[in-house]
From TrEMBL:
GO molecular function: thioredoxin peroxidase activity
Gene Ontology biological process: cell redox homeostasis; hydrogen peroxide catabolic process; removal of superoxide radicals
GO CC annotations, alphabetized: cytosol
Name of this protein: thioredoxin-dependent peroxiredoxin
Family annotation (SUPFAM superfamilies): Thioredoxin-like
UniProt source species: Romanomermis culicivorax
Amino acid sequence: MSCGIARIGKPAPDFECQAVVDNDFKTVKLSDYKGKYVVLFFYPRDL
């Protein structure tokens, strides 16, 4: 996972992380969603 420093009132820094998409792990980047609304929800995956 990589990221920059978040600043209030500024665009979010680009980052990439592992996410569960359709029950599989996938690497996603914030820049993949440029121009779209994004809501981040952090939740530990149930095993």
